Amino acid sequence: MSKPLWITCTSSPIPPSVVFQLTLYAGSITSLDELNLPSHMSIAPSNCHSQKPRTNLSDFHVPPPYGYKYKPNRRIDLVMFGFPISHDYLLEYAQRNKICPNHPELSDRQLEMTALHCIVAYAAKRFDAEWSPIDIPKGLKYSTKVNEYAIVIASNRTQAHLDRMKSYPHFRQLATFLGLPPSAATWVFPMYSSERTASDLRNEKNKVV
Fold first, then answer.
1. Which of 30, 103, 160, 202 pairs with 65 at a CA distance of 20 to 30 A?
2. pTM here?
3. How many other CB atoms are there within 10 angstroms of residue 142's CB atom?
4. Where are the domains of the chain?
């Protein structure tokens, strides 16, 4: 597991977008070059004590809105908040909930997709949640342990979508349904470019993300 990270800034305040991007990357960063930090910033391991587990939405950081510019030609990407899940999680979910027990001929991949469809359908109806494929760190594309999807409940696409971090009423119930601790929730990047995804979501008039 990656060590926690902290930033030092030698000449000016740290833009909120840089802090937020580091928060997102801290768990899976493979190269500091990926962060594209300005020259006056450096990054180092943190020796501070771990934070207490996050159990409520109010415990999580909220990013600036999508498109917020902190310097010319640099802006905040579209990000979504929710519970990332992996292929291994879906297979375990299918086995735990006895999905298709009378069809031993189904492959693991077929069971995973069936589990995903069951989760998505119930999460949408009961918990007002969506699902999305999410960005995968380089070199982990074919690992069954890497999180490839997320059940999402908010985004930074508009202020109304960010406000769901204050008003969403089903956070702990959704975590219980998924069999995950509330602290497993996090902000994730969508799989596709932020511009294309945001455009698609606007056309769908998506109220969640």
1. 30
2. 0.73
3. 8
4. 5-75, 80-204
